[in-house]
Structures are given as structure tokens and as C-alpha cells.
Amino acid sequence: MKNDIPSNTQKRAVIYCRVSTKEQVNEGNSLVSQERLCREYALNEGYEIAEVFIEKGESAKTADRSELQRLLAFCTKNNDAVQAVISYKIDRISRNIADYSYIKVRLKNAGVEIRSVTEYFEDTPAGRFMENIIANVSQFDNEVRTERSVGGMREAVQEGRYVWKAPLGYDNVKFDNKATIAPNSLAPLVKETFELIAQRTYSTEVIRLMMREKGLTDRNGNAVGRSYFFRLLRNPLYKGVIKKFGNTVNGTFEPILTEIIFDEVQAILKGRKNKIKHYLKENPDFPLRRFILNPDGRQLTGYWSQGKRLKYPYYSFHLPGTTIRKEVLEQKFMHLLNRYAFDTKHLNALKDGLEKHFGKQSVNEMQAGVAVQKRIDEVDKQIDKLIDLHSKEQISVNIFTARIKKHETELEELQGVLRVKNTSNINISDLLEYVTEALKNPHLLWQRSPIHIQRKLQVFDFPNGVIFDGINCRTLKICSLFKLKELIDSCKFPRVNSRIPGKNTRLNISLPPSAENLTDTKVYWETIANDLTILKTILSQPDSLA
């Protein structure tokens, strides 16, 4: 390709090719054919090709096209070095008579004429008249097509069909050879997005970030941005309503949402800053919210229901038949906790095991654990503050993402320190004295603690949450202290003498050789001591009732 064309006696021309749809660009046939015919014409007319301009997927309704503007600049810059613009048809250059006249004047001022491969006209009064007729016919044809297209769109809307580009969660399809839309694989994520907003548990921005992690992306696989996300939330197509040409029509396609959910979200968006503050992340009325799951992994929610005279608290999975009174479910959860309560036998066995492996030494390591846990709590609060600032649009997405990533990296490092830190220096008696009541009555401790302590105890006791099947609470993972209690109860505790209450005797308990290596190690007791330290840290926080 050349930028500057030296002037000489050889006639030079540029070629301009255009297609108006992306489909034609992808197929490539039209552009290839246009360029080939233009080159043949240039060869027959004695023109040397100086440059080829290819306009891909641009409409001729306007002159504001990138390649056309580049062509005009090229011809102006290389004045007198280019004599003609060759195009397959005039309508490739423009379908608007006013734009065509403007383009023609620009080129004429640069000494360049327009040549059409398939249309003949000379630079004579009759030729220019014919050229104008051809340009007018192109505009007339374009306007007729537009009118027919708009008419077809209006007819489609009256039939309840949506014929424009489908929004996120829908695909453009054809039924009975007529265009419309139908839900696709992203529809469940779109529905979940609206349901989460309707619950008013999180800010809209936090929900956007949550759904991004779950796979809610645009058609190019990119994360959904803020402006696009809010346009999505306000699109009435999701409740099955088409708003076009000043009319509102119920669509015949399948809606993703009920009208109730969609309208509830619109009300929240109009006053979201005032409403969301009433739905706290840690609502003291419902400590088990989002912690307990159903067997399919759906999170528990909580709400107040208005009776005739009073309000009544309920938990629910937002599924039919899953509503349960708050006190009933919390009693079931406390029953689960009570299964892991320590008695004297368990406490003595715990103390014997710790003293055997660590002895009565300094509390330096415990204090280190407390300091690390304190920093973890501080980072958690900073993350919550960032989420709040971002939801109020007080910090940008880039700053929010960068800071969140930094804090998450620090959290991973701190939690790693807690997992691997050396617990050889620990005051067993002091530590056990602090946590004894918590081990003896974990259900009562949870019941009497403020919400932020309840939350920490829940995660500490059951790291993977709790599953409620409609009858009982169960869990797949428990903390090491609860595992120790189970070992003692099943008489599989490794070589620790457990005192029998009321007697000056000990019960010798040992593990089978196959299981002994799993627990009778320093690493195992470091884990126990580490969990005791974490538990003490939780209980030592302000407002704890331990």
C-alpha cells in the first residue's frame, strides 16, 4: 500500500468496495467479487490501482464511514495523482442523494471522478443527468426497503414477536419460519440475578460481581459492565413485554421472569440506596441466613411475615414447601451443635493429649495467632467497606477490583500462617480454661452470642456450612475439635488416658494401627491447638458472651 503517489502520465485509480451486513463480511463473496470486477474494469480502462478501500459491514445511509473518510483524505492528499474512484455500483458509495453529492464535490475538487463498473455515464450534461438519476434510484430503493422493513417490524410486534437483537439470556430463533426469541443457557443466571435483587440481601453492585463469578457474561464472553448490567435489569422483555413504536405488547415468546419479580426489581432500582440499608449483611434476626443450604446447594433466606396482629419470623429456600419457623430451625441447628458438646471425659483427654505433645510452655504462639486473627478481621472489614463504597459509586471499578484483589491475597497469606504456624509454645491450662465452657455448651454459646460471634462460630464449627433436608440438619465437615470428640466417643482416641468421672482411675484408649498414624502425630495436635487458639480469639472479641 502506498501513502504518497508521484504524479506522472500513468492514470491511477482507487477501488472502493462495501457490504452492509456482518454476514456478508463473514461470507466474503460479495467483497471478493466487487474487488475482482473493479480490478478488471481498471485494467480495461488503463488505470493503475493505487489503493483499495474495503468497507466491512457499514450502511450507505450515511457518509460517516471509516474507509470512505480515509478514501476522501487519500484523494485530497494525493491531489492530481489519482484520477478516479472505481466502485462496483454507485449505491456502494452512497444510497443517499445528499451524501452522494457531497462525496462527488469532494472528489471533484481533488480532480477525481467516480467510475461505476456496472453503470455507464459520461461527464456530459446527459451523463451527469443519468448519474443523478442512478443516485436517486439508489436512495428510492433504500427508502422502500426501510419502509418495508419497518412495516415488517411493526407487524411482528403486533404478533408478539421480537425481531431485533436478542438481549442476554435469549437467542434469536425462528418458529414457523418467523423470527422471534427464546431463552438460552444464560436464562437461569438472569433469573437468579433478579431474584437476588428482589431479596434485597445484597447491593445491586455486589450481585453484579457475584453473577459475574457464576458465569453471567456478554455474547463475547466478557464480564457484564455496570451500565450494561443496569440496562439488562430494566429490560421489560424479561417479563414478556415488548415496547416498540410507542406501543406495549405482550410477547408470544417465553418470559424468563414473572411480572411480580420484574416490577419488584424496578421498584428497588428506583430507590435502591434507601431500601438496601434495611437489609443488613448480618441481620441479627436471622443468623443462619446464607449459612444453611438445601441438598441442591440453595442458600437459606430469612424474612418476617405479617400476621393479623404480630409479625412472625421464618426461614425459607424460596422454594415451595421450604418455609419453616425461625425457632424450629434454630432448635434443630442447636441440636446439631449439642451432639459435639464435651463432657469431663473429653476435656481430660484433650488436656492429656495437648500436654503430652506441647507441655506447659509460653503463650507466645497463642498471642501470635490472636494477632493474625485480628488482622484477618480487619481485612474482612476493609473488604466490606470497599463493597459498600463501590455500591454507592464512590470508587471506580478498577480501583475496587485492584484493592479487593490485594486484600484477598493478604487474607490467603494470613490464613496460611494460621494453618502452618508452630504451636510448640502454648499454655495448655490457660487456653483450656478460656474455652472450656464453649466446648461444654456449644449450642448455648451460639444461642447467647451476638450476630457477629454467631457467624464466626458457625463457620468455625462447620467450615462447609450445614445442609437442611427439611427434617434434620447435617454437615459434611466439622472442625478438628469436634472430630476429636467423635474419636473419643468411638474409643478410637490414640493412646490417651481418659479419667472416669468420680473415680481415681483412667480408661486406656488406643487406635488400631491402621488409623493410629493419621492422628497420633505432632501435626494433628498442632491442628487441635491451632483451632483452640482461633476459638479463643473469637470468644475474646468485644460483645462476646463467653
Number of helices: 21
Strand order of the largest sheet: 2-1-3-4
Helix content: 40-55%
Mean pLDDT reading: 77
Number of strands: 16
> What is the overall shape?
elongated
Radius of gyration: 37 Å
Low-confidence stretches: 272-281, 360-364, 495-520
Number of domain modules: 3
**Estimated structural class:** alpha/beta
Major beta-sheet overview: 4 strands, parallel
Tell me what portion of residues adopts beta-strand conformation: 5-15%
- C-alpha termini separation: 80 Å
List keywords for this structure.
546 residues; alpha/beta; Rossmann fold; Hect, E3 ligase catalytic domain fold; 3 domains; 4-stranded parallel β-sheet; 3-stranded mixed β-sheet; 21 helices; 16 strands; 51% helix; elongated
The gist of it:
The protein is an alpha/beta fold. It is built from 21 helices and 16 strands. The longest helix is centred in the N-terminal third of the chain and has 34 residues, at 125-158.
Description:
The structure is a single chain. The protein is an alpha/beta fold. The protein has three domains: 12-147, Resolvase, N-terminal catalytic domain (Rossmann fold, 3-Layer(aba) Sandwich), CATH 3.40.50.1390; 170-276, Putative Large Serine Recombinase, Chain B, Domain 2 (Hect, E3 ligase catalytic domain fold); 334-539, no CATH class. The protein is 51% helix and 14% strand. It has helices at 22-27, 29-45, 66-77, 90-93, 97-109, 125-158, 187-199, 204-214, 226-233, 259-270, 272-276, 326-338, 344-358, 364-391, 397-420, 428-440, 442-448, 451-461, 480-489, 513-519, 522-539, and strands at 12-19, 48-56, 84-87, 113-116, 170-175, 178-183, 241-244, 247-250, 292-293, 301-306, 311-316, 324-325, 466-468, 473-474, 496-499, 506-509. A four-stranded parallel β-sheet has the order 2-1-3-4, with helices on both faces. A three-stranded mixed β-sheet has the order 9-13-14. Strand 13 (466-468) and strand 14 (473-474) form a beta hairpin. Residues 272-281, 360-364 and 495-520 have low confidence and may be disordered.
